[in-house]
Structure formats: structure tokens, C-alpha cells
């Protein structure tokens, strides 16, 4: 290009912006690209303002020439001289064109000097353009200024509505390698009141080894010492060991930050009881002041935490500190500990704990305590607690045992031990009974029949407790049981009890009815000098007042041992109001009809007995219009002993005609030995010999001689010789027809 052309190009650049733009448009139409570039150079030589003015006019001709001029200007200026040009272009409304081309240039060559362009834009108010350039140059931005300044820049970005670009820029900064790592950025951001990098710092430090954390602390001590406490907090995290925490606190003390060191220790101790125990033990020797502060802080924790801390301290060998916390715990009112008794059992012996809670503990507190002892395999402690209750608070023992039964009935988990099956406490209690000391066992068996405890929900709980104690007595050795019976014979303090509430009779009946070695036990009772003078009277009293089902079992034992016919023992039955039903049950266990008859005959008030449900039903129905058919059906279908009871009831009500009707209908029943022996035993037992004789006469008149003779033999074998003789006499004398004599 000639000199004249160059001069002309400079002349064009010196003209008004409108005219220069028109010339450039013509040159573009002519395809004079080289001349256009020379004019662009001349415009740039005149300064950014000239370039901006001409570019603005070129926009009226179309975007192509404007973009070309801005591109050439930025390329010629280079990154070090582009700041003024870009800001001028922004002032003239050409910011979009400038930013578009800057993006292209930075993507090709991300030179650090472009950060100056972003700074100039920010200073000139083009915030978002500046932020975009910063985001494109994270490494250059980090190297251009201290991290604290960048932190404030990020905050201003967020406050101006560019939070997402700011977070993206921070992510890029964290990925830049250099002096500033995630920890430095996190600390710098905290100065600007931002916690955006905390998670990154926590992730880095929380997984770093203790040595790496200490190296980072050494670096931070030189650059940002005020951030050391925060660094340690990030490093501790959730899984950091107490030994590492102790090392970090030691470093803080070495750096002259004892208060920060103590703060780290207290925070770690507050967060985890195991850490607290380790730190207290480790600090005890060389840093006793800090250990004392941690102990004092522990004394302010909840009862549950203090109990757990005592256990942790003992595991770590800090017995002195554990004792101090435990003493403080036991200095609190007992009411504060009652809800947590299962937790404290491992730290306090039974006697000390009972002495502290004795005045306040109730059954609902003591049952979980017993269960904890049993569940943790400490049977001796459970037995000792029962012994303390029996010796000092008998009524409390009774309430506690009933609460134990109540827990099972309600089928609810026990406080402090939700994992236990509701059946386990009862099983544990049963297994404990054979190991109890004699005074405790006496107290336990006595409370089964305690009549007036207001906390008992009466019969249901008492029956379940009695069942559990009965199962336990089955496990007691014979020798121990004999000693227990001796102890129960001693007069108990207080007013005399009725026989049905006598623990001695209850234990005796339970043992004889439920034990497999009951026959051996009975023999020992009759042979042992301590028992022989008493056992007959006691068995008699048991027959008089014991539960009917248990009486039957005891009678079976008497039969097996060959003592079933002892009248001194069986005489107690005659005083029972339910004698007919009991005798019928005993018949099934081996009592002969003759013995049953004699027992009943010796009873004081035979008219007071009830005939039973079936007999009562017949009497009610027979009061109506169908009396005859009802009585006839009853005579033919009632059980033999019920038939006898019906005759007794009719005679007692002076309904002799009805009684005769029943007898007349009954004599048709066959075979005779299937019903007549029982009827005679019932009637003669009730002292109704006349009615028995009338029945015999009617039967003989309607029966074969051989059948009557065979029946007499049956009666003799059953111990009823008088009735057999009565039958034989009637068989030989009271017949109305000769054809029956064969």
C-alpha cells in the first residue's frame, strides 16, 4: 500500500465519526479489506473514544463492520491495554459486542492480564460482564489478589443477584492448584460471612489423618491464625477419634491458644460420652485443670448421661473421676433416679442403691430393676434385692411381685428393657425361688395369701403370683422344702389367719399336688421327727380348707403312698361346704364309696350341701306342669351321685311323693351295679337310711336274685358291708313273686 493511501486512511480516521463510518461502508462495498484494516489502525491510534464512536455509527450500517472493528481493536490493544477500550465501548453501548469478542479471545488464550479488564469493568459499573470474565479466569483471579479480597468479590456477586455464578466461580477456584486450598478459601470466605466452602473444608479435613491436619494447622498458624479453632472443628467431624482431638488441642495450646484448646475439648466431650471419658482420663496426669473442667461440665448433664459417663470412665480406667460423678449422682434426691434405675445397676452395688432409693421406690420402679439384674445375668443381685425387700419392706416386696405379674398380664415392655419378652421376667422369678434364703422364701410364700394389700388388683394378680410361686416350689429341693415347712409352722405376727389363708397349708398342698417326688416328700414328712407330730393334723386341715382340685391331687399321692384310708386325714373333708362335689372328684382318684359315705355321714351339717347344677335344674323344672315327666327323665338320665343328691333334696323339701316317683322310675335302670352303689353311698352318707332302705326294697322287687347277690358282693368290696347286708336281707324276705327266685 502506497504512502498516499496511508495518508488518506489517516485522514478518514480524522473525520467525523459519521463520515468515517460512511467511508468504511463504501470500502467494504468495494472489498478493500486491506484499506479497511489501515483505517481501523488509524482509528485505534486516535484512542478508544474514536474507536467507540465510529463503531457505534457502523452499527447503523450493519453488525458485521462493528464486530470487525471491535475485534481488530482488541487484538491490536492486547490484554494489557484492553481495559480502557472495553470500558469505553461499554459506555457507548457496545458492551455486548466487546464481551462476545473477549470471550472468544480468552477461550483461545486465557491470559491472566484479562483480569484487569474485568476489574476495570467492575469499577465502571459493568458488574455482570466483569463477573463473567472472572468466571472464565479462575486461576488468574486467584493469583491476582489475596483470597480475602476474592471472598468479598464473591459476596458482592451474590448480593447483586449473581449467586449461582458466584458459587460456580468458587467451585472453579477450589479446583485451582496453588497456595490456597479448600481450607484457606473456607477461612477467607468466613471473613466475608460466607460458609460456602465449609463443606469442602470439612470433607477434606474430616478424612485427613491427624498428621495432615496438624500440618495444615501449622500453615494456617502462619497465614490465618484466627482460623485455627475453625480448622480443628472441621477436622473433628463425626468419626474423629478422641486421641486425634487431644492432639489437636495440644497443638492449640502450643500455639498459645489455651482457651480455644479447652473449647475444642468441651465440645468434643459434650458431643460424645466415650470421647469425654477418654479425654478426662488422658488429661488427668498432665493437664489436670482441663480434666477438672470437663468433669465439672459433666456434672451438669442429665442423669442418663451421667450414668453412661460413669460406665465409660470405668472402661477407660478413670475410676477416681467415675467415683466423683457417681457420688454427685447419688447426692441427688432419690426421686431423680427412680426412672433410670436399670441404667445405674452396673455402677452401684445393690445395698448402696437400695439404701438410697428405699424411701421413694415403688413397685413400678423396682420391677425394671429386678429385670435388669436378671437380664444381665446377675441373679445374685436380684436375690439380694428381694432379700432386702423381704427384710425391710415386706409390703413393698408384695407390691413388687404383683407388679411383676401385672407386667406380664398387660403384655407391655419394661422400662429400660424393651427387648425383653414379657414372659421372661416371670420365668426368671420362678428360677430364682429355689435360690432364695429361707426368710425371703417364707416372705414370698406368705405374700401369696396376703389378704389386704390395696395395690393388688385382687384375685387375678394374686392367682398369677401364686401360680409362679407354685412353679418355683416344684424346683426347690425336698430338704429345703422341709425346712420351709418348719419355718412356716412358727406363729406369724399379727392376728390369726383363717385356714384358707395359711401359707403352711398352701405350700404343703402345692408341693404334694405338683411335685413328681410328692410321694417321697410325704414319706419324709411322716418319718422326720420335726414333722411327724404335725403332719396328720396339717393334712386334715388341708383337706378341710384346700382348693378342691388340689385336694384331689393330694389324695392321689396318699393313695400311691398307701395312706389313703387314714381316717384322721380324711376327716377334714366332712367340714367342707362343697363336700358332695369333692367326694365325687376323689372317687375318680381312688377313694372308695364306703370311705366317701363315712366321710359324708360324719359331716356336721348334711342339709347345708348343694346338690349341684343338674339337681337344681331338675328341681326348678319339676315345679311346673310337666313335673312327672321331668322327674322320670331325671331318674333315668342323671349321673348316679346326682340321682342320690336329687332324692336328698326332695326329702329335705318334704316332697316325699316326688321322691317315691323318682325311686320308682330309677329302679328300672340297668345294670344295677352301674348306679345303685353310688346312690346308696350318697343316701347313707347323708344319714337317710330310711330312703336307702326304700330304694333297696323297690330294686329287689324288680330284680333277679342273682343280680342282687352280685351287687351285694360289689358293695362289700367298696367298703359298704351294712348296705350289702341290707340288700341280702331284702333279697331273701321282701319278694312278692316266686318267679324272681332264680
Folded structure, characterized:
Residues 411-421, 452-456 and 737-742 have low confidence and may be disordered. The N and C termini lie far apart (171 Å). With 742 residues, this protein is mostly helical. The chain has a domain at 612-742. 42% of the residues are buried. 72% of the residues lie in helices and 0% in strands. It is elongated, with a radius of gyration of 54 Å.
Number of strands: 0
Structural class: mainly alpha
N-to-C terminal Cα separation, in Å? Answer: 171 Å
Q: What Rg is obtained from the alpha carbons, in whole angstroms?
A: 54 Å
- What is the overall number of helices? 46
- Strand residues, percent: under 5%
Quaternary assembly: single chain
Helix content range: over 70%
From the spread of the alpha carbons, the general shape counts as elongated
- Overall mean confidence score, pLDDT: 78
Describe the SSE topology.
Layout lengths: L2 H12 L2 H14 L2 H14 L1 H11 L4 H15 L4 H10 L3 H14 L5 H10 L3 H10 L1 H7 L2 H13 L3 H12 L7 H10 L6 H10 L2 H14 L4 H9 L5 H13 L3 H14 L1 H14 L1 H11 L4 H13 L3 H12 L10 H4 L5 H8 L5 H13 L3 H14 L1 H17 L13 H9 L5 H10 L10 H18 L2 H12 L13 H12 L3 H10 L4 H14 L2 H13 L6 H4 L8 H10 L4 H9 L11 H9 L5 H11 L2 H13 L3 H11 L9 H10 L3 H13 L3 H13 L3 H13 L9
Helix pairs in contact: 1-3, 2-4, 3-4, 3-5, 4-5, 4-6, 5-7, 6-7, 6-8, 8-9, 9-12, 10-12, 11-12, 11-13, 13-14, 14-16, 15-16, 15-17, 16-17, 16-18, 17-18, 18-19, 18-20, 19-20, 19-21, 21-22, 25-26, 25-27, 26-27, 26-29, 27-30, 28-30, 29-31, 30-32, 31-32, 32-33, 32-34, 32-35, 38-43, 39-41, ...
Amino acid at each position: 500500500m502506497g504512502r498516499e493511501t496511508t495518508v488518506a486512511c489517516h485522514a478518514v480516521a480524522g473525520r467525523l465519526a459519521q463520515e468515517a463510518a460512511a467511508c468504511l461502508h463504501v470500502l467494504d462495498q468495494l472489498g478493500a479489506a486491506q484499506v479497511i484494516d489501515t483505517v481501523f489502525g488509524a482509528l485505534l491510534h486516535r484512542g478508544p473514544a474514536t474507536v467507540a464512536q465510529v463503531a457505534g455509527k457502523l452499527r447503523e450500517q450493519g453488525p458485521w463492520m462493528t464486530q470487525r472493528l471491535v475485534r481488530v481493536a482488541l487484538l491490536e490493544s492486547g490484554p494489557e491495554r484492553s481495559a480502557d477500550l472495553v470500558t469505553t465501548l461499554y459506555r457507548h453501548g457496545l458492551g455486548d459486542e466487546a464481551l462476545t469478542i473477549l470471550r472468544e479471545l480468552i477461550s483461545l488464550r486465557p491470559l491472566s492480564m484479562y483480569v484487569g479488564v474485568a476489574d476495570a469493568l467492575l469499577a465502571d459499573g459493568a458488574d455482570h460482564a466483569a463477573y463473567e470474565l472472572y468466571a472464565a479466569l479462575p486461576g488468574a483471579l486467584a493469583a491476582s489478589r489475596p483470597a480475602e479480597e476474592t471472598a468479598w468479590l464473591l459476596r458482592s456477586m451474590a448480593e447483586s443477584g449473581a449467586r449461582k455464578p458466584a458459587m460456580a466461580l468458587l467451585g472453579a477456584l477450589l479446583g485451582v492448584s496453588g497456595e490456597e486450598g479448600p481450607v484457606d478459601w473456607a477461612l477467607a470466605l468466613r471473613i466475608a460471612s460466607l460458609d460456602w466452602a465449609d463443606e469442602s473444608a470439612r470433607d477434606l479435613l474430616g478424612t485427613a489423618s491427624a498428621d495432615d491436619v496438624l500440618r495444615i494447622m501449622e500453615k494456617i498458624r502462619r497465614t490465618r491464625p484466627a482460623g485455627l479453632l475453625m480448622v480443628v472443628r472441621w477436622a473433628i467431624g463425626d468419626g474423629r477419634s478422641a486421641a486425634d482431638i487431644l492432639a489437636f488441642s495440644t497443638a492449640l495450646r502450643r500455639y498459645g491458644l489455651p482457651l480455644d484448646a479447652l473449647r475444642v475439648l468441651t465440645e468434643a466431650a459434650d458431643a460424645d460420652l466415650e470421647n469425654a471419658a477418654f479425654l478426662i482420663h488422658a488429661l488427668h496426669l498432665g493437664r489436670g485443670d482441663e480434666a477438672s473442667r470437663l468433669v465439672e461440665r459433666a456434672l451438669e448433664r442429665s442423669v442418663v448421661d451421667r450414668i453412661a459417663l460413669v460406665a465409660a470412665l470405668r472402661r477407660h480406667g478413670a475410676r477416681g473421676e467415675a467415683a466423683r460423678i457417681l457420688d454427685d449422682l447419688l447426692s441427688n434426691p432419690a426421686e431423680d433416679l427412680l426412672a433410670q434405675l436399670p441404667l445405674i445397676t452396673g455402677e452401684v452395688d445393690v445395698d448402696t442403691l437400695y439404701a438410697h432409693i428405699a424411701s421413694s421406690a415403688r413397685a413400678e420402679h423396682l420391677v425394671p430393676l429386678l429385670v435388669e439384674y436378671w437380664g444381665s445375668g446377675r441373679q445374685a443381685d436380684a436375690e439380694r434385692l428381694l432379700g432386702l425387700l423381704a427384710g425391710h419392706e415386706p409390703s413393698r416386696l408384695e407390691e413388687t411381685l404383683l407388679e411383676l405379674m401385672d407386667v406380664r398380664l398387660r403384655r407391655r415392655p419394661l422400662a429400660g428393657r424393651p427387648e425383653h419378652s414379657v414372659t421372661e421376667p416371670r420365668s426368671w422369678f420362678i428360677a430364682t425361688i429355689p435360690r432364695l434364703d429361707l426368710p425371703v422364701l417364707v416372705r414370698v410364700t406368705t405374700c401369696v395369701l396376703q389378704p389386704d394389700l390395696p395395690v393388688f388388683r385382687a384375685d387375678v394378680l394374686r392367682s398369677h403370683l401364686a401360680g409362679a410361686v407354685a412353679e418355683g416350689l416344684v424346683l426347690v429341693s425336698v430338704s429345703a422344702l422341709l425346712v420351709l415347712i418348719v419355718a412356716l409352722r412358727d406363729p406369724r405376727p399379727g392376728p390369726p389367719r383363717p385356714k384358707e389363708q395359711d401359707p403352711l397349708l398352701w405350700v404343703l398342698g402345692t408341693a404334694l399336688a405338683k411335685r413328681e417326688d410328692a410321694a417321697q416328700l410325704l414319706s419324709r414328712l411322716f418319718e422326720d421327727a420335726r414333722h411327724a407330730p404335725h403332719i396328720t393334723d396339717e393334712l386334715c386341715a388341708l383337706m378341710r380348707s384346700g382348693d378342691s382340685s388340689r385336694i384331689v391331687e393330694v389324695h392321689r399321692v396318699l393313695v400311691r403312698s398307701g395312706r389313703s384310708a387314714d381316717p384322721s386325714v380324711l376327716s377334714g373333708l366332712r367340714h367342707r361346704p362343697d363336700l358332695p362335689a369333692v367326694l365325687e372328684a376323689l372317687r375318680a382318684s381312688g377313694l372308695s364309696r364306703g370311705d366317701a359315705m363315712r366321710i359324708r355321714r360324719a359331716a356336721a351339717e348334711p342339709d347345708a350341701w348343694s346338690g349341684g347344677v343338674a339337681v337344681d335344674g331338675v328341681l326348678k323344672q319339676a315345679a311346673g306342669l310337666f313335673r312327672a315327666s321331668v322327674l322320670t327323665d331325671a331318674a333315668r338320665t342323671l349321673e348316679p351321685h346326682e340321682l342320690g343328691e336329687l332324692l336328698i333334696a326332695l326329702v329335705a323339701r318334704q316332697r316325699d311323693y316326688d321322691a317315691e316317683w323318682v325311686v320308682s322310675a330309677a329302679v328300672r335302670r340297668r345294670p344295677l351295679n352301674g348306679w345303685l352303689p353310688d346312690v346308696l353311698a350318697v343316701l347313707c352318707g347323708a344319714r337317710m337310711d330310711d330312703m336307702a332302705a326304700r330304694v333297696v326294697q323297690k330294686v329287689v322287687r324288680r330284680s333277679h336274685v342273682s343280680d342282687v347277690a352280685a351287687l351285694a358282693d360289689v358293695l362289700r368290696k367298696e367298703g359298704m358291708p351294712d348296705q350289702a347286708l341290707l340288700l341280702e336281707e331284702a333279697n331273701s324276705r321282701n319278694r312278692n313273686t316266686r318267679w324272681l327266685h332264680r
